[in-house]
Amino acid sequence: MGKVKGKAGPLSQRPDNSAFKQQRLPAWSPMLTANTVLPFFYLMALICMLLGVWLLLTVQSTQELKLDYTEAGTCNICFEKRKNVNNAAQSCSCTVVFPVEKAFKGDVFFYYGLRNFHQNLRRYMDSRDDAQLVGRKQKLQNPSSYCWPFTKDQNGLPIAPCGAVANSIFNDSFTLTYLDPGSPSSQVPLLRRGITWYTDKNIKYRNPRTDNLTLAEVFEGTAQPPYWQKPVYDLDPLDLTNNGFINDDFIVWMREAAFPNFKKLYGILHRANKPFTKGLPAGNYSMEIAYNFPVQHFQGRKEVVLTTLTWFGGQNHFLPIAYLVTSSLILLIAILLTVVWWKFGKDGKNVQE
Fold first, then answer.
1. Predicted local distance difference test score (pLDDT) of residue 147
2. What is the pTM of this model?
């Protein structure tokens, strides 16, 4: 009886006699020959070249103007003033005049940019409380430990919003004026609402429930971040619905940039009235700046960017150049393989023969 069981053991471990388990399924093994490989290489080189040229022409159809205002115009006075952290609460304004050589046609987007500001540091990115930003009232009084050292102020009051990301918010503001030589100067209208992602505005960031209280009463017992000049419930005194954690500028800043040199959307040209119905006309412009954000401590620079966009985005030449370089490399490899095949394999010969 024991011998029968001993013989049946190995037989029970055999796989089923099926085409799949016995590896009898039909298979196709392509034979790579010069007649099949070389046309594929030339075709891929052509496709990459066409895509690269197409994207390059698309990118070049956009218009862009960058203006470094860190020490431009009268901003050098504010630049020196911001070197002293004790002057952080004191306001400083400056003016920069610049020309627009060629009119910007269509929608024009106004960005602010920073250089050498690393938002992608792990400890910096973790220094926030997402539960607080989503509107949980208990988190107003008990911020996450991840926000340290920006959890409480010197008086022991909890900070809202807490963390290093919120504390370092970009707080310069801009007023752009068109200096029309034929008529009085007119302020360039910028749409300052609707510049955030839908998911951010409606899901990731919410104010605590008010329960018939004002927003100031809801945030009572909390302190503003140390570097802020206004409390979170009064960020936009002209629009009460744009305050708290759902403020557009605040949400745009809280989406961290991946690189140290970046730009973030500040506003979009409102093309309702002349002379801005067709875009931004050529001419001289004056930009009044509330100069609040210091850059000396991280050796950074500040700039504004005026640009038009296409379906591909702004003026980014990386992808078109990448396609053109890839096309050139594939074409070079294809030519080398063709020469080798023509010399050694075209008549059925090989190197060994």
1. 93
2. 0.81
